[in-house]
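REQUEST FORM: STRUCTURE PREDICTION
Request ID: SP-0412
Submitted by: Lab K.M.
Chain count: 1
Length (residues): 632
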Amino acid sequence: MVQKGKIGVTTDNIFPIIKKFLYSDQEIFLREIVSNAVDATQKIKTLSDRGEFKGELGELSVRVTLNKEQKTVTISDRGIGMTAEEVDKYINQIALSSANEFLDKYKDDANAIIGHFGLGFYSSFMVSNRVEIISKSYKKDEPAVKWTCDGSPEFTMQETEKDERGTDIVLHIDDEYKEFLEKERIESLLVKYCKFLPVPIIFGKKQDWKEGKLIDTEEDNIINDVNPLWRQKPAGLKDEDYIKFYRDLYPMSFNEEPMFWIHLNVDYPFNLTGILYFPKIKNNLDLQRNKIQLYSNQVYVTDSVEGIVPEFLTLLHGVIDSPDIPLNVSRSYLQGDNNVKKISSHITKKVADKLEELFKKERTQFQEKWDSLKLFIEYGMLTDDKFYDRAAKFSLLKNTEGEYFTFEEYKTLVSGSQTDKNGDIINLYCSNKQEQYSHIEAAKEKGYDVLLMDGQLDVHWVGLLEQKLEKTRFVRVDSDIIDHIIQKEDIKEIVLSDKQKETLTHTIKAQLPAIEKTEFTVDFKALGESSRPVQIVQNEFSRRMKEMAAMQQQMAFYGELPDTYQVVLNTQHPSIKSLIDASKEKDKELLLKEITEDGKIKQMIDLALLSGGMLKGEALSNFVKRSFDMIK
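STATUS: Completed
RESULT:
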């Protein structure tokens, strides 16, 4: 007898479906149907373990079969199966979920039940113009049933013949989605979504290369690893196992190995397993994101975990798996889920624990890894206050000599020599050892230590440290004259008339080359007769703002401003003293003419530019030619 009817969709039950099962990506259908088949297989195993099913389990696998001629994809299992009454209840009445009912009944034994059969199933209609269910229940004397629907609320259901228990879902693929009739496409989706499902997923046969072509063998092609590494007990695993798994996850990483890893295994107050790897990260944050794969009971959910885990953790690689993570919901829903928030906080704690343990027990190794860890740790400190509190204990400062210090260790090192007149500790740093070499050497001659801050986030990090560390400032070593960069006492002002300042400024600026998007100011400081006559420095604040603007769109305004440098004249140097004396008597045009003809001031300015890496192109060529002319 053929039963006809309409699928029971009411306003009372349609909204939960829209909320949880409104997919934006058609390819998700395969994950849903295969997951349901795994569900059914896990159910029969549970019933057998409890003695409620006495029959032979036989082979328990899920087979995916492609028939391009008939335009079908079939997903078959030997699981629990369904009676006609159950098909009517779980398929025709969409609001019900057999998995939920099964879990309520067998909650102590059914942790492996994946999804919500009867709900995710309907994703199949995104790519199919007709779907058939052919199912035979494990219950004795229950006839097999065939259910057919073309995507409208109308269906047919009738008895049919089926030799073995289990369910076949036959998808008649719509012409619009014929890409899902290609073997490579289906295999790629199975690998993406089903690679670690707990029941063997079989798709075709393994192939061998013979006589110049691939030939099917007799061996089934099993897509998945039913017992992935993160589900195993850490005590029985070796480093080689973790490294092999990393390469399996990221085959395009070639010979790159992770520095170390964390094996997560939590069963209270939530369930969480996984392995998180620390890759070598030196720069370019964006290239490192979205390498964590999120699973729910070994079912792939997403690799777009930003907003689900703390932002800085998106730089880690690996796998997170938890049945407490909803499978079929949007990322925005996940972000607000309380279990997800708890899991996120726990992972942050475990990461901090691992880093602190490595620092305390194996500090030498930690220091060797610091250059690769630094970006990750700085990112965490900048974006997560709780992580900052933990990381402040093991974060390191590295100086230009390659020595490493904790914050407290460095404070002890420099507080005696690098404390200014206001009691602030001035931490000097460079961003490029080669370009700022002369400034670094000048600082060392004063007995100062110089930190190396050449990382992508360093300019933001030092700003954060200035907020967190009491009476501490970070100043780049070329931001002022070394005699004034750490002011021990008040600086005596140089007394010049307004006319002198105008004349000298006009004269000096006329000797400077034109550099695109660069402006110069002129200042006068008494630096001693033996100090350089001319030095060029860049203001710490304006330079830092421009560097931050390069990374933060909301600060783009600063990025458009020109670079501002200060040309500092040493008023106690003999050549500059003569220039100042001349400015008392001569107007700016006459003084400029004489200075230009003499060429010495021009040479001094070019030397200052050259030491800062700012003399280039035509200006550099002219400097070299002038230098040779002077020594003829």
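NOTES: The mean pLDDT is 85.
Reviewed by: T.R.
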